[in-house]
Write a structure and sequence with these properties.
mainly alpha; 2 strands
Length: 162
């Protein structure tokens, strides 16, 4: 891809993608337990590719006057490899779809029963700097209502609609 970097003492026996590469080799017809040398060489090639791609994207961002690397920098680096660019675009699209789908789910599932615990108390600090409870949230001091009617009827009625 770019200039080769020195590999001396970079990996020191650690494998970053051993499990994934073993599965990939098996899926492509290799033995269920591939040779350790094969896995080590493929792991080194994979790790070097990722590192070189990140360095090239960082270099592109720097040449454009930015300190942060953006997605467009990675797209620029792989622009000549149609398969890689297509796969990257596909994965980015799937990520956006998943984000939108997660937003659609109701996140109040674990909050059942909290509305039964009663109105929340507000805390305030008086002029002396002491903290004290101010009563129920949304309470009007002059009407003498304890808020139970609103709690039982919920959103059907409110004090403003009376």
């Amino acid at each position: 891809m770019t200039e080769p970097r020195a590999r001396a003492a970079r990996h020191k026996g650690q494998l970053n993608f051993e499990k994934e590469l073993r599965g990939l080799l098996y899926a492509h017809g290799d033995d269920e337990d591939p040779l350790p040398e094969t896995v080590r060489v493929l792991d080194e090639i994979t790790t070097d590719f990722i590192i070189e791609t990140c360095h090239a994207a960082s270099r592109h961002a720097t040449l454009n006057g930015r300190q942060k690397v953006k997605l467009e920098d990675f797209k620029f680096v792989v622009r000549k490899d149609d398969r890689l660019l297509g796969r990257m675009t596909e994965l980015i699209g799937m990520e956006k779809e998943l984000k939108e789908a997660r937003k659609g789910f109701n996140t109040d599932e674990g909050k059942v029963g909290l509305e039964r615990s009663g109105p929340k108390k507000r805390r305030r600090t008086n002029k002396a700097g002491e903290k004290e409870e101010d009563g129920e949230a949304g309470e009007d001091a002059e009407d003498g209502d304890d808020g139970m009617e609103d709690l039982m009827l919920g959103p059907l009625t409110s004090k403003a609609g009376r």
